[in-house]
């Protein structure tokens, strides 16, 4: 036996207890009653060090994440990293538009514009941190926000 099922990082990520409860605990397994509950953020200021593009992205998504009660104090760094990656991606794309995919090196030969590498790496970071924040459709399906619960559901009492 290799024991891969018990190694951290293997297999599916566990669902939060709140998500299991909303689904009616379909697996009927015992729920983790010791899951940490971190403080939800209702408003968060944009860090001063972020550039203009990153600050614009922050202004777009931070209020949404707070309104849906998706972001906790322990997630603030993910939001910062997402916005910083977005800023780098926009900057790299502007450079690519201005100078092209290839540039002339010191010897007069063509080489790949380093901005292309920055753009690709930034897109990977956007995907990673965006998924952690639920900013893509499949990740959003896995999130349980506190803002969309219907108080008038007649089946709640069952």
Automatic annotation (TrEMBL):
Any Pfam family matching the protein: Terminase_4
Region span, Disordered: 1-34
Superkingdom classification of source: Bacteria
InterPro entries: Phage_term_ssu_P27
UniProt xrefs under NCBIfam families: sm_term_P27 (TIGR01558)
Protein name as it appears in the record: Phage terminase, small subunit, putative, P27 family
Phylogenetic classification of the source organism: Bacteria, Pseudomonadati, Pseudomonadota, Gammaproteobacteria, Oceanospirillales
């Amino acid at each position: 036996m290799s024991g891969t099922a018990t190694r951290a990082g293997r297999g599916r990520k566990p669902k939060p207890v709140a998500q299991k409860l909303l689904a009616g605990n379909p697996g009927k397994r015992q729920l983790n009653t010791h899951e940490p509950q971190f403080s939800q953020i209702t408003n968060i200021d944009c860090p001063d060090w972020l550039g203009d593009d990153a600050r614009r992205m922050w202004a777009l998504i931070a209020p949404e994440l707070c309104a849906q009660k998706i972001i906790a104090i322990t997630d603030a760094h993910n939001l910062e990293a997402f916005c910083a990656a977005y800023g780098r991606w926009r900057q790299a794309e502007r450079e690519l538009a201005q100078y092209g995919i290839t540039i002339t090196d010191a010897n007069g030969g063509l080489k790949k514009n380093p901005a292309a590498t920055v753009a690709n790496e930034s897109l990977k970071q956007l995907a990673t941190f965006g998924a952690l924040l639920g900013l893509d459709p499949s990740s959003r399906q896995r999130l349980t926000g506190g803002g969309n619960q219907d108080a008038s559901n007649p089946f709640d009492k069952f």
